[in-house]
Amino acid sequence: MKRLLSTLVLFMSMISCGTSPSGSAVKTIIGNDDRPYQSYSLAVAPRNAIGRLMLTSKNGSEVGCTGTLVRADVVLTAAHCLVFSGDSFDFGFFYSAYDNGNFTGEYKVKSFVLGTTSPSTVAGRKSDWALVKVEHLWGEQPAPLKMAGLAGSALSYPVTVDLEGYSGDRQGGEVPSFHFGCRLLKTITSATVSNAPLGTIAHDCDAAPGSSGAPLVQKIWSGYQIVAVNTAGNNDLFEGLTGPINIAADTRDAARALTTLR
């Protein structure tokens, strides 16, 4: 069962997926755009736990990001979605399985824990995650997705994943977009030929502003797990691959924080 969104305006300025540390323009589509235009059922896992997170600051500015239920009352997203430059957060809502004004569940944002308070800095990029405490108001309550809880350095690359996000280049973020079978490429270390922030994970999943916080989901024998969180686009030269990469934060610290969140 779905209902029309009425609690927030539909058209808003979308927060960027991020900028490169140098401040240069970003390109978040890697080569060809591999996100199909056809619709997919949002009623099944893992898509039913993913949705649109809409946030408003005290001065009235609004941003839209992507979030995922990782506990019945907690949504995982990017920290920079909740850091308003020169302002502070006022209120927000999470809509599971959001699609063009319809959704299966509505949640009100109560509080949040940030992986970093400076997510747009080089040092902060690797911790650009947030756990958003929410209160269920209406509709269905899908089963949460679990986080892998692994550091990027513990992954066996490349890791095949899917990304679902509310990219602003698809009807202003009103519909979800998908990139199936993209890859987590490598954790950025001091030995990596890259200008990307140390500790972040390079990936080649196509995305656009509004997909910040989108889960990078891996299919495993028991179902699905979130391996990383989409955070930014980054123009770069990466290990001999000319052109841009996108970056993500791993789920190790977010998973740890979730175990103590009350």
Strand content: 35-45%
Order of helices and strands: EEEEEEEEEEEEEEEH
Structural class of the helix and strand makeup? mainly beta
Sheet having the most strands: 6 strands, antiparallel, barrel
As residue ranges, the low-confidence spans are: 1-25
Instruction: Record the strand order, biggest sheet.
Output: 1-2-3-6-5-4
Shape: globular
Q: How large is the count of helical segments? A: 1
Gyration radius, rounded:
17 Å
For the terminal residues, how far apart are their CA atoms?
Answer: 30 Å
The percentage helix is: under 10%
Tally of strands: 15
Overall mean confidence score, pLDDT? 87
Describe it.
- This protein has 262 residues and is mainly β.
- The chain has one helix at residues 252-260, and strands spanning 50-57, 62-71, 74-77, 89-96, 105-114, 130-139, 146-147, 159-165, 177-187, 201-203, 215-220, 223-234, 237-238, 241-242, 245-250.
- It is 3% helix and 39% strand.
- Strands 1-2-3-6-5-4 form a 6-stranded antiparallel β-barrel.
